[in-house]
């Protein structure tokens, strides 16, 4: 049973038939990892903490910079030079009462920390981290919601835990093979903070719906053209030569 205070606090979510009191308890018992506490990660983490997610793990080794402030809304000028993950964790735990762990860089040495996590949100800004994370999540059967944005293009991709559907679809590596390179980054292409917030909100929405057992299509690339306000969606077929999912020889999706 929810405490009276929690019932009042989350009353608008509980009103949803798809959530209810049981669903709110699921959210409060969930543990979610957010990889990258930049523009996307800051807002994903705040939305999930505000929704009552029980525990958040924040991975980032960068420090707060002045140029971060227009889109990384957990930070202020007083935080410049401090750890993004630590500042975000302190603020979120104080404001929302969520248990938040501040962790460093996600790499080969730290990836196994995700063994105790089922829900993972990729808000990183480089393919090396994205590929490492996607491969780990696939082999360990963890649900991954990946988001990216640069200039006026936002991307979303859900890689569901294996066995979540009967239709074979591609994994993240099928979509972006390991040798993929891209010059599209906020630091070089620019971005509006409101566009970042839009993609982050969708990532947070996807994670919450998945926790609430509301199925979403896996293996589909969803791209939003902010310049012309148009959605584009494409199914990602499984690559028979994929170095990650093809080696499993499974008929289940990624």
Automatic annotation (TrEMBL):
InterPro entries: D-isomer_DH_CS1 (IPR029752), ThiF/MoeB/HesA (IPR045886), ThiF_NAD_FAD-bd (IPR000594), Ubiquitin-activating_enz (IPR035985). Residues 10-243 form the THIF-type NAD/FAD binding fold domain. SUPFAM superfamilies: Activating enzymes of the ubiquitin-like proteins. PROSITE patterns: D_2_HYDROXYACID_DH_1. Transmembrane segments: none annotated. This is HesA/MoeB/ThiF family protein. It comes from Shewanella jiangmenensis.
């Amino acid at each position: 049973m929810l405490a009276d205070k929690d019932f009042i606090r989350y009353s608008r979510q509980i009103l949803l038939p798809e959530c209810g009191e049981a669903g709110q308890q699921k959210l409060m018992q969930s543990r979610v990892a957010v990889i990258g506490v930049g523009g996307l990660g800051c807002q994903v983490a705040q939305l999930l903490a505000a929704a009552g997610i029980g525990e958040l793990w924040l991975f980032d080794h960068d420090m707060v910079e002045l140029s971060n402030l227009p889109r990384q809304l957990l930070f202020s000028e007083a935080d410049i030079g401090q750890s993004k993950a630590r500042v975000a964790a302190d603020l979120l735990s104080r404001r929302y009462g969520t248990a938040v762990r501040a962790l460093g860089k996600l790499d080969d040495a730290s990836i196994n920390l995700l063994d105790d996590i089922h829900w993972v949100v990729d808000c990183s800004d480089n393919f090396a981290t994205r590929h490492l994370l996607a491969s780990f999540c696939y082999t360990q059967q963890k649900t991954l919601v990946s988001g990216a944005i640069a200039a006026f293009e936002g991307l979303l991709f859900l890689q569901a835990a294996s066995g979540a559907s009967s239709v074979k679809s591609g994994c993240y590596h099928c979509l972006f093979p390991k040798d993929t390179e891209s010059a599209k980054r906020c630091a070089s292409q620019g971005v509006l903070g409101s566009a970042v917030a839009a993609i982050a909100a969708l990532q947070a929405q996807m994670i919450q719906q998945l926790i609430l057992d509301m199925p979403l299509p896996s293996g589909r690339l969803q791209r939003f053209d902010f310049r012309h306000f148009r959605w584009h969606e494409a199914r990602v077929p499984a690559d028979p030569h994929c170095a990650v999912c093809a080696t499993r020889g499974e008929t289940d999706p990624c």
